[in-house]
Amino acid sequence: MRKVIHAATGILACCAALLLGFLFYMNSNLPDKYMVSEGGIFSIPAKAEITATVEQTKSSRQVLTQSGNIYQAQLKLFGVVPLKQVTVEVVEKQMVAACGNPFGIKMFTEGVMVVGLSDMDTESGSVNPARNAGIKIGDVVMRIDGKEVYSNEQVGEIVEASGGKPLKISLKRKNEPMTVTLTPCKSTVDGGYKAGMWVRDSSAGIGTMTFYDPVSGVFGGLGHAVCDVDTGEILPLMSGEAVQVTITGCIKGECGAPGELQGNFYQNGKMGNLYLNTETGIYGTLNNKITPPVLMPIAFRQEVKAAPATILTTLNGSTPQEYDILIEKVNFGDNNPTKNMVIRITDPELLAKTGGIVQGMSGSPILQDGKLIGAVTHVFVNDPTRGFGIFAENMYYSIDNVENAMSAAS
């Protein structure tokens, strides 16, 4: 009998540990804040096992439905087990035009980014002035001796003109300002003064436009930042242009070798300005409004389901087409704002032409139940039929910062 009791106790303890572990997992993977449209009722339709309870009174009904208000809701598992209390914000329903058309990106950085450090031969031997000064790859040089720098050539000219005298370098490292002193050295190769670092001042490429907001005139694209190819760091945007582009072909993706859309930039084809390069995408304004825009609502994260969906993307010319995909997994947490969904291409035509997701398709809108739910962001290198997607909600609410960036640029 005692053995039976011990066995039962052990089983119950294991069950309790599993339950607590499951509840912890559920709690940590549910965000602390949600949004709901004006007049709507908060729920999580994508997770039927989770219910939301809100205490309603006559005085609270207006709070629950009027834009601009915030209230608390209790999430429960199967309506019984409490999970967590969350904040719900009531917002206006946002309508945008889902795009899917390609655009060219031309951007110049704020300052210059250090992308490499190189030793140089001097009369004293092999040295690296930049490394000796404490400069690291990924640092962004903002000013040299108080003078703002914008180009590779400008940095080279200042270093050469120093004649070997110490230079005060103002830079940013992970957005944190700092100052170092760099003493250029004279090269025995060409007799010039060098800093021992390679810097980059610009970038160009092709991406896909995700949405256009007809009210603000702002568009969002890519679904991830434009990063330096050598360092992986987000390039700080000083100024940039969105230009017209025509897709001319595609290098098909294979396991271990991502494919790529190929295209041509239009000469004198500027279509707008770029103002933000952020973790969730690149944002700007268009010179001409999209007319007439076919509008659809932005989905909130809790509305996104692991179910069939479609994407809008362009494989030839400049006209997007709709293709079938499957959303395999949805991550509601805030731990990674650009990898909210795992998607798989299921459309036979798209698979035949591209092999799946290829470079240049980043930003392709994801549609489900008549709503813009997100955008394609990354491809799985070892399986080009699958990749990540970002919630449209994460992209859309970044456009509030565009007006600030426009004011700063004017």
UniProtKB/TrEMBL annotation:
Source domain of life is: Bacteria
Pfam families to which the protein is assigned, alphabetical: PDZ_2 (PF13180), Peptidase_S55 (PF05580)
Its Enzyme Commission number(s) read 3.4.21.116
Keyword list, A-Z: Hydrolase, Membrane, Transmembrane, Transmembrane helix
Q: Signal peptide span per the entry?
A: none
UniProt-listed InterPro entries? PDZ (IPR001478), PDZ_sf (IPR036034), Peptidase_S1_PA (IPR009003), Peptidase_S55 (IPR008763), SpoIVB (IPR014219)
Q: Which residues form the Peptidase S55 domain?
A: 176-410
Give the residue spans that cross the bilayer: 7-26
User: GO molecular function terms here?
Assistant: hydrolase activity
User: Which NCBIfam families does this one have?
Assistant: spore_IV_B (TIGR02860)
Q: What is this protein called?
A: SpoIVB peptidase
Which gene is this protein's source?
Answer: spoIVB
